[in-house]
């Protein structure tokens, strides 16, 4: 996550004042310069899914919370989720209103960060990270009969869960997995011994020559409400089979993991955080190990970078955010553009 020194992005205060319509402007796809999908609210961390032939986006809902900025991202003080949907890329985007509110999550303290969603057996699941009342990030889950909610939160966090940025992937055999983790403000480094270190590092372990901190994965139970196994490390290796190191900030995992499958290969993509790349690595199993392949997207304007990848009507798209509307790190807007793959399945790097 963010550090205060990195937030001075200039004062592009292009705030869309007074515009509160629920149905938003069509966003014309222009690969050269994609537009924010909506501008009446600020949105980030878009997790895109296709349910019943329609595209749904589960983003964070950024707000100006008047919370002082700190090195752990306190100013990312989000309090609810709105779900967006669209029938076509470039068509009308609908904001379905508040789907889940912080006040309706019994165990939550503050900061509703990047969510994801899944569907199984007639129920939609919304997964979300939020700090508990002790200020420790945990993963929550909420359910609904509709992809747009309203969602009802389970009374407790998912047992054994921690850190941020859940991404739920359902494989072709029907098994679902949650990927999670984020260093710095996402607290992953404080769990490196297996228990939470409240006074642990605010950034990383400062062990540049040791394997980098890993994202985590666990298979979900059949009811999608708990982990079926303890969280495991996601290993990301270089082409020589060596783990990426903690000091390799251009390539190591930072936050915002996403999993998709293409032609039987598993693609784990993620943000490198302080170097602002979206990178990816491929493997032969949902658990990895994954081999680093390169940069999926060069840095966007803004400090954070967070994405999802989805196939819709025969084409592959990346949903991501930048700060075009405000110039402020914590007031972001989501965008979409098509992805181009080379014949071997690797990506043509996108420069936004
Ligand atoms: O939106 C809050 C945090 O910023 C997310 O959890 C990170 O991935 C980064 O985008």
Summarize the structure.
It comes from Spirosoma utsteinense. This protein has 352 residues and is mainly β.
Describe this structure in words.
With 352 residues, the chain is mainly β. The protein has a single domain, classed as Tachylectin-2, Chain A, CATH 2.115.10. It has strands at 23-24, 42-51, 54-62, 80-86, 93-101, 108-110, 116-120, 123-132, 137-144, 152-153, 167-170, 176-180, 216-219, 232-233, 236-237, 255-262, 265-271, 278-283, 290-297, 307-312, 315-322, 333-338. The strands form 5 sheets. It has a 5-stranded antiparallel β-sheet with strand order 1-5-4-3-2, with no helix packed on it. Strands 6, 7, 8, 9 and 10 form a 5-stranded antiparallel β-sheet that branches. It has a 5-stranded mixed β-sheet with strand order 15-19-18-17-16, with no helix packed on it. The chain is globular and about 45 Å long. Bound molecules: beta-L-arabinofuranose. Belongs to the glycosyl hydrolase 43 family. It holds the Pfam family Glyco_hydro_43. Keywords: Carbohydrate metabolism, Glycosidase, Hydrolase, Polysaccharide degradation, Signal, Xylan degradation. This is Alpha-N-arabinofuranosidase.
């Amino acid at each position: 996550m963010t550090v205060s020194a990195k937030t001075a992005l200039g004062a592009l205060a292009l705030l869309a004042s007074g515009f509160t319509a629920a149905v938003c402007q069509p966003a014309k796809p222009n690969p050269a310069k994609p537009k924010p999908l909506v501008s009446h609210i600020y949105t980030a961390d878009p997790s895109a899914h296709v349910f019943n032939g329609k595209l749904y986006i589960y983003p964070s809902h950024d707000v100006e919370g008047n919370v002082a900025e700190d090195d752990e991202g306190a100013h990312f003080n989000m309090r609810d989720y709105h779900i967006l949907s669209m029938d076509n890329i470039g068509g009308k985007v609908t904001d379905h209103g508040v789907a889940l509110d912080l006040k309706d999550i019994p165990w939550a303290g503050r900061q509703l960060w990047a969510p994801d969603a899944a569907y199984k057996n007639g129920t939609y699941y919304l997964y979300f990270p939020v700090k508990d009342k002790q200020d420790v990030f945990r993963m929550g889950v909420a359910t609904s009969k509709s992809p747009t909610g309203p969602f009802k939160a389970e009374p407790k966090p998912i047992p054994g869960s921690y850190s941020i940025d859940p991404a739920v992937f359902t494989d072709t055999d029907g098994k679902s997995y949650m990927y999670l983790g984020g260093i710095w403000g996402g607290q992953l480094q404080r769990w490196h011994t297996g228990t939470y270190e409240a006074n642990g590092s605010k950034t990383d372990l400062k062990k540049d020559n040791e394997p980098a901190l890993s994202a985590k994965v666990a298979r979900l139970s059949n009811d999608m409400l708990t982990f079926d196994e303890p969280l495991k490390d996601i290993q990301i290796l270089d082409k020589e089979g060596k783990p990426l190191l903690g000091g390799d900030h251009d390539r190591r995992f930072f936050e915002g993991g996403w999993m998709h499958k293409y032609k039987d290969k598993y693609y784990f993509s993620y943000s490198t955080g302080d170097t602002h790349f979206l990178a990816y690595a491929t493997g032969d199993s949902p658990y990895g190990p994954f081999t680093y392949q390169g940069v999926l997207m060069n840095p966007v304007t803004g400090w954070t970078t967070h994405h999802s990848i989805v196939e819709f009507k025969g084409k592959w798209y990346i949903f991501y955010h930048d700060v075009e509307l405000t110039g402020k790190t914590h007031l972001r807007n989501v965008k979409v553009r098509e992805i181009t793959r080379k014949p071997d399945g690797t990506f043509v790097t996108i420069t936004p």
